[in-house]
Amino acid sequence: MQTSLRIRRPDDWHLHLRDDGLLRGVLPETSRHFARGLVMPNLLPAVTTAKRAEDYRRRILAALPEGHAFVPLMTLYLTDTTDPADVAAAHDDGLITAVKLYPAGATTNSGSGVRDIRMVMPVLERLAETGCPLCVHGEVADPDVDIFDREARFIETMLEPLARELPDIRIVLEHVTTREGVDFVRGGGESLAATVTVHHMMLNRNHVLAGGIRPHYYCLPVAKREEHRLAVRAAATSGDGKFFLGTDSAPHRTTDKLAPCGCAGIFTAPNAIPCLAQVFEDENALDRLEAFTSLNGARFYGLAPNSGGITLRKTSQPSRFPKAVDTPAGAVTVFDPVRPIYWSVD
Asked: How many CB atoms lie within 10 A of CB 9?
């Protein structure tokens, strides 16, 4: 039985750090284990220009605890009025690593997102020319489409046509949650990849709804049927280089999660790596964990793997994680991984 594992320091290719008090409180939970993180731009106001991305990066670095080495990789929020030249210049200067497409109304702070894909084609064409990746929240926001079908419908009506029209554009289907999403990524070329979250490997929709509503398991995209969870989990642990870790760790104050109209998002930063080690051990795939956390994403984004590493150890008793992390903005509840986790990070 394997009781320890050394891997290169991992990257988080889908990360929410928020701002101000929440940023100062949650950033250490990521920078403790991760060397880099692709930071999502859905603040209020959104990070829509190179200037806003530069300012946000400064705020993140200012909040970094002393002694923590962490590189925030910035993204721009795509809108119907985004300037293609501003995006290209920001990418050429190394200020941004990717552009994020939120369908308007699909998730947290997405009201300024894309309403008509034709409006942003000049930007997408420039991305295809420059090689800057497009990270996609893959759900339609049509209220007539059942919430459990929104990823599959997005792939059918928007993503497949886009990939055909711009075959050179580099696309990351973020937080893939369905068998259809996994199949689409596997069937595409080398310019297509997907991030997988910890919680979508561990939760199905029964965990959210059966026996009572559990708001701390509510996220967008929502957890799906068990068959979809198993398909996503199999893809992540398969060794296929097109799938890599993006935790989508999304902190909200506990009071906001418990509100009558609670926020979508699960805060996994404090225990993401131990949970992953447990998942990969359960799938007899510990030898593939490093590729998923530390190699595949870096390769897709054209970056060198991190130097240094972290050591995971198997424990005889279940690991204990904090129930919440206190921040200057209020307490944030930490993901409860449903089952005992017998791994920890030294």
From this structure: 18
* pLDDT tens digits along 253-267: 999 999 999 999 999
Does the annotation count 92 as an active-site position?
no
In single-letter form, the type of residue at position 324 comes to: A
pLDDT in tens, 4-61: 999 999 999 999 999 999 999 999 999 999 999 999 999 999 999 999 999 999 999 9
Distances in whole angstroms, Cα of residue 183 to Cα of each of 144, 154, 194: 25, 14, 11
Cα 180 off chain centre by: 18
Alpha helices in the chain (DSSP H): 20-31, 50-63, 84-92, 121-130, 150-154, 160-165, 179-187, 198-202, 205-209, 226-237, 254-257, 272-282, 289-290, 296-301
pTM value is: 0.97
* DSSP code at position 10: P
Angle between helices 226-237 and 179-187 (to 10 degrees): 30
> Which tokens is 339 given?
């089952």
Quote the CA–CA distance of 319 and 293 in Å, as a whole number.
20
- Using a CB cutoff of 8 Å and minimum separation of 24, what contacts does 63-68 make? 63/23, 63/24, 63/27, 64/27, 64/31, 65/27, 65/28, 65/31, 68/28, 68/31, 68/32
Alpha-helical (H) ranges within 238-337 are: 254-257, 272-282, 289-290, 296-301
DSSP annotation of 194 reads: E
Q: Identify whether the C-beta of residue 193 lies closer than 8 Å to the C-beta of residue 182.
A: no
SS3 call for 326: strand
Catalytic member of 248, 256, 326, 346? 248
